[in-house]
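Lab notebook, bench 4. Still working through the backlog of constructs that have no structural model yet. Next entry is a single chain of 373 residues. Request: give me the structure tokens for it.
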Amino acid sequence: MAQMTKKTYLKSGAPDGYAELKRLLERRGLFEKTPAYYAIRLILILGLLTFSLAVLGTLHHLWLVLLDAALLAFSSAQLSFMVHDACHRQICRTPARNDLLALIFSNLLLGVSRKWWMYSHNLHHANPNQVGRDPDVEIPVLAFTTEQAENGRSFRRLVMRYQAFLFTPLLLLEAWNLTFHSIRFFARGQTANRRTEILLVACHYVLYFVLAFSLLNPLSAVLFLVVHRALFGAYLGMTFATNHTGMPMLGKGEQMDFLSRQLLTARNLEAHPITDFLFGGLSCQIEHHLFPTVPRKNLRDVAIVVKAYCAERGLPYYETSVARCYREVFQHLHRMGAGLRNAKAEKRPTTATPAVLLVLLEDEHPPALASKR
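Model written out:
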């Protein structure tokens, strides 16, 4: 089905289709910046973050400390979405101001290198779901294609075999993974503003640990840090997983026009104010990938134009519910590990997977990309 869909795209996508679509949006003013919208959101997010840190020293029960860690994780993830928008030049009218916001929020407040994240994320935007080019599908312990699963070795092979079940637990380590990649990026050589980035990240972690251990007893401080980092990473990971995981994959040398590539590999979540808020605007993933500088506030208006454009020209446009999306994500991961599980089963019997999980994970039919418009 995926291969047939790719051929359909290549036949249907006109070379000038993207430029035509962009002109439609420009005439409607949907690329215009929305500073008031972002100012209000930043005040709310930074207020939540400040509150969670300010009350930390007044909490005398461990369950309240852990609840505060969860609030800080939520605030951190929401701030990450603002970093994402700033890196895409969505917030301010000048690139320099967007870069400054991203530098402060990402390096100082989150402890993640802005430069590394932009480098990795730009590669992803240019090559979504393309093996060998998209860093988001080159995760050592996960297989997004059967070839990746077959090439897995030792411990990686074991994780890939049961990756649908291990995916969520692995996301609890995602915040530390971002830190690891930032440090490795710094260690690899000179980049613009390298010293400034290193200094801000170092300040973040000094303040982070000093604050926790000065306001809490050692055990509470450790649990606070563990819960905060785990929930922060899981929130981000579960959000970004909805964007492309389970959508068609492209081979290393596969060529496709920009419009077709972005429509083929991304999915949207059905419109709802709560969904758009919790997913930081990434629920309009198709529109974001097509026009990454469009402010978050305008994405649903852009979606109306893009969906109508695709319907008129017979281009598939996939949108689904949050529940269905996550089912597709885990089904895809389960299918990609099937070959490894079958190979193990041929060698020796294994414990049966609970029936209720098999019902949820085993689905012979990938998502029909043209099913909803």
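Notes after review: Residues 218-244 form the longest helix (27 residues). Residues 1-5, 7-13, 355-359, 368-373 have pLDDT under 50 and may be disordered. Flag for follow-up if needed.
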